[in-house]
Structure formats: structure tokens, C-alpha cells
Design brief:
The protein is of the alpha/beta class. The protein has helices at about 10-20, 25-30, 35-45, 95-105, 115-125, 140-150, 170-175, 180, 215-220, 235-240, 265-275, 290-295, 305-340, and strands spanning about 50, 65-70, 70-75, 75-80, 105-110, 130-135, 155-160, 225-230, 245-250, 280-285, 305, 350-355. It has a single domain, classed as Alpha-Beta Barrel (TIM Barrel), CATH 3.20.20.70. The strands form three sheets. Strands 4-11-10-9-8-7-6-5 form an eight-stranded parallel beta sheet. Helix 12 (about 290-295) links the parallel strand 10 (about 280-285) and strand 11. Helix 4 (about 95-105) runs parallel beside helix 13 and helix 10 crosses helix 11 (about 265-275). The structure holds flavin mononucleotide. Flavin mononucleotide (FMN) binds next to helix 2 and helix 13.
Length: about 350
């Protein structure tokens, strides 16, 4: 055993994760699309926002709890859907699910989970979970999948809209990364529907899926529908018009279309467009408690973490994810106290200013 690893912030986990993962896995997790401009801008944009702290407000009691879609979470920090957790840690998604349950946060499980949905639920039966769907070309498969996640107790359907096709990820092309053959993907079909053949094919995404098709999902599920990957006021208005319950402002961690705005820069226009008619969340580049506070000040109800969860998993499995979540929750508590916020409801635009740099 080497030197005791000292991890006190999320970027410490990043450095340790890098040492533990193969080059191709590291590149797959970290990489952005194209030139990686948006991937980096997700981080840089948070740094252009300054805080305006208020003092002498009795912050002896700071409450980080809030709700999403009416359900309580211990802090506005949840887990974004990311695929293939078994790449980072042998147990994969069951470890993530346990850590999320222990932290009292929502875990959005990906269509590309590398454990079965049944295993994930069994590992953390009291966990609060949403399911992220990549719409499949086969309507029946979508229907089976959605009804299965609903009966398994997932509480919302998150439809990712920014992947009508995969972004251009140069590292993965250079590394000839092939997730189809490297990983035994779980079978998307329900246990009853499976035949004895393993479902090795990476299921394709339906690139014809469009706004008009959302109403079909309404007919097959009672779950709230959340659209992940909206970046413009035009699409935000359409989301309101189509009666979805939430939007995750996201650029997929800069992995899809490069040269789009950082998530936190796109957030204000989306928040303004929806006029409070649905909840707006954010993911992309959240690495510190201050980042969480800034996103909430700009109108996000909660933020989601992508890569940091995978760093935690790669370092120490369930315990690593737990540490990542707890470090960020502690930092956010400090951010609230030092800006004079006793409750999440007190976080508003007056707490921030944009730097002219
Ligand atoms: C390795 C990896 C896999 C991902 N897989 C998915 C996925 O299966 N579905 C999805 O909607 N988003 C996926 N995303 C995007 C994340 O949900 C999220 O938008 C992004 O990672 C947030 O940025 P951050 O990594 O800077 O926190 C993935 C991201 C990464 C890094």
C-alpha cells in the first residue's frame, strides 16, 4: 500500500482516478467532443461568476435540504446518468446506487448501465432513482423499458435529447474504443422477454425522435418526464408547451456538440423562458460547493454530477462515491453559511455577479 491518499476535494479524486484507470477508459470518461472547448468552458464559466456574501445573519443552522419533483433530497446535488460504471469499478452501478441511497440523493440510472436494473434496485431498495432513456428505434422496447422502470420504483423518466447521434470523440476514435465488444451490456428487455442469446449489441439511439413523439410517452407512463440536454430558450418554450415536468440544462459534459455554451451560461435563458412552469436543473462542470450555489442562484433547483462520481467509483467504489458526495455536500454547506444562506430557498441572484474578465 502506497502513501495514504489525501483526498479533500473533487479534483483530488480526479488525479487519483487517473492513476487507477487504463488510458482508454480514462480518455472515454474525461474526453469531450471536437476540440474539447465546451468541456473546458463548463468549468471556466463557473469561475467567471463572483459571489456577493451577506454577513451577520445567524448561520448557526444551515439546512441544505430541498425537493425535486416534490421529493426531498438531502442537498441539491444528485448523480447524472453516466454509462458503464463497471469500467470504473467491478460492481459498477450497484455501488453507485448504495452510495446515493446513503447520501439521501437522487441517482439517475443510465440506459447504458452495465448492471441490470433489477440488480441496481436490489442493491439499494430505498434509494431515490430516476431513469435516463436513450429512445430506442423499437417502440415496443421503449414501452417495455419504461413500464419496467416504473414498476421497479424509478420516479421519473429522463429523456436525453442531445444524442440524435454520437458526438465526435477524437480520443475514443484514436483508442479504437469499442464498448460493444469490451463490455457485456445488460439486456434492455425485461427478464421474461429475454431469450437465451446474450444481448451484446449496443442498442442504437432513435435519431428520428422529435417533439411530436413525446405525447406517445405520455400514453405509456405516469412518470414525470424530464428532458436532458436543453440549451436554448426556444427549446425550453417547446418543453413547456409539451407539458414536460423538468429540464436538465446540459451539454452532455461537452461530449456531444462542441462550441455550445457552458451549461451555467445557458442556464439563465432557459430559466427565464420557462417562467416557473417547470423545474430546471443543471449538469456540467460542477466541482465545488460554490459551483452548486452559483447554479442555484441562477435558478437551478438542483445540480447533477457526471465525471466526479466516476472518479469516486474508480478510487474506492461505493465509498469513493460516498466521499465525493459528502465532500461536495460539506462544501455547499460552507458556501451557504459564508454567503449568509440558512435555507436553499434563500439562495437568489443577489448572491452573484458576473466578472468582466
Ligand atoms: C463517461 C460518461 C458517460 C456518460 N453517459 C451518459 C449516458 O449514458 N446518458 C446521458 O444522458 N448522459 C451521459 N453522460 C453525460 C452526463 O449525464 C452529464 O451530462 C455530464 O457528465 C455532466 O458533466 P460533468 O461530467 O462535467 O459533471 C455521460 C458522461 C460521461 C462523462
Amino acid at each position: 500500500e502506497g502513501a495514504e491518499m489525501s483526498v479533500v476535494c473533487l479534483t483530488d479524486f480526479e488525479a487519483h482516478a487517473r492513476e487507477r484507470l487504463s488510458k482508454s477508459t480514462w480518455d472515454y470518461i474525461e474526453g469531450g467532443a471536437g476540440e474539447g472547448f465546451t468541456r473546458d468552458d463548463n468549468i471556466a464559466a463557473f469561475k467567471k461568476i463572483r459571489l456577493r456574501p451577506r454577513y451577520l445573519r445567524d448561520v448557526s443552522q444551515v439546512d441544505t435540504r430541498t425537493t425535486i419533483q416534490g421529493e426531498e433530497i438531502s442537498a441539491p446535488i444528485c448523480i447524472a446518468p453516466t454509462g458503464f460504471h463497471c469500467l470504473a469499478w467491478p460492481d459498477g452501478e450497484t455501488s453507485t446506487a448504495r452510495a446515493a441511497q446513503a447520501a439521501g440523493l437522487c441517482y439517475i440510472t443510465s440506459t447504458y448501465a452495465s448492471r441490470t436494473l433489477e440488480d441496481i434496485v436490489a442493491a439499494a431498495p430505498r434509494g431515490f432513482r430516476w431513469f435516463q432513456l436513450y429512445v430506442q428505434p423499437d417502440r415496443q422496447l421503449n414501452k417495455q423499458l419504461v413500464q419496467r422502470v416504473e414498476s421497479l420504483g424509478f420516479r421519473a423518466l429522463v429523456i436525453t435529447v442531445d444524442v440524435p447521434k454520437l458526438g465526435n470523440r477524437r480520443h475514443d476514435i484514436r483508442n479504437q474504443l469499442n464498448l460493444k465488444t469490451n463490455l457485456l451490456l445488460k439486456d434492455l428487455r425485461s427478464p421474461q422477454e429475454r431469450n437465451s442469446m446474450p444481448y451484446l449489441q449496443m442498442s442504437p439511439i432513435d435519431s428520428s425522435f422529435c417533439w411530436e413523439d413525446l405525447s406517445w410517452f405520455r400514453t405509456i407512463t405516469q412518470l414525470p418526464i424530464i428532458l436532458k440536454g436543453i440549451l436554448t430558450k426556444e427549446d425550453a418554450e417547446l418543453a413547456v408547451k409539451h407539458n414536460v415536468q423538468g429540464i436538465i440544462v446540459s451539454n452532455h459534459g461537452g461530449r456531444q456538440l462542441d462550441d455550445v455554451p457552458a451549461s451555467v451560461d445557458a442556464l439563465p435563458e432557459v430559466v427565464a423562458a420557462v417562467k416557473g412552469k417547470l423545474e430546471v436543473y443543471l449538469d456540467g462542470g460542477v466541482r465545488t460547493g460554490n459551483d452548486v450555489l452559483k447554479a442555484l442562484a441562477l435558478g437551478a433547483k438542483c445540480v447533477f454530477l457526471g465525471r466526479p462520481v466516476l472518479w469516486g467509483l474508480a478510487c474506492k467504489g461505493e465509498h469513493g462515491v460516498g466521499e465525493v458526495l459528502n465532500i461536495l455536500k460539506d462544501e455547499f454547506h460552507t458556501s451557504m453559511a459564508l454567503t449568509g444562506c440558512r435555507s436553499v430557498a434563500e439562495i437568489n441572484q443577489d448572491l452573484i455577479q458576473f466578472s468582466r474578465l
